[in-house]
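Subject: Dipeptide transporter structure
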Amino acid sequence: MTIEVASVAVAQPSRLWVAFSRNPLFWLGALLLAVIIMVAVLAPLIAPHDPLEQNIVARLEPPSAEFLFGTDNYGRDVLSRLIYGARISLMVGFVAILIAMTIGCTIGIVAGYVGGALDQVVMGVLDVMLSFPALLLGLMIAAMLGASLQNLIIAIAITEIAPFARVARAPTIALKQQDFVIAGRALGFGPVRIMGVHILPNLISDVVVMSSLWMASAIRTEASLSFIGLGVPPPTPTWGSMIREGFDNILDSWWLAVFPSLAILLTVLALNLLGDALRDAIDPKLRGE
């Protein structure tokens, strides 16, 4: 029995790797995201200029050999600010989704496992949160907390808690009726152990798939909040604030808004491609099994 279980455990990652290798969209998304992450990590080494250095003489210069992506209203290099802005967008998206995933999954698993009045109360609160569009809810929270990096992460994390909770709750309700959970209770295992050791591993794949997709949503929300002035305060470069700065000069200085918009597009595209590939690889129906 032990040998059979071990062989299944080894075969599962093997089947997933085969599914990934046959999906060209996975490789495209992985390559795009790897390049963006590498650019963010190596920003001090590859940025051609200081992103905060002002040069009024070179104000609003179009793309050239010296400034590949042009300069902004203060003569700052757009390419350098774009590279450093990747750090903010990726960090906000990753940290916010990590917080939302941890809190949301905990709430969903506990509500689904305990059931009864607790489940009804929790679902009522989640339904209220889901009734607001994510951007509107994030806007209200960010406006109350004020503009800062920490408040931006908190606002985006709160908007994503309810979706994670719902994703975790539904399979928990089904799993708690399974024989292995009933056997665990018969052996005297406590609720915390059953939820953490027996239920959580069986729904983690769904959560990972959704986290990649919702990280793309978090990056879009961060850009939207930065665009309206509720993101990281200037002069720290962020893609959303760069688009906002270029909005007033969109007809004369197109590069100010176009390049950060393309950066957001490529990042969201990479995360969505990875999320779709993960879903196709994990779901046996989509693999044709």
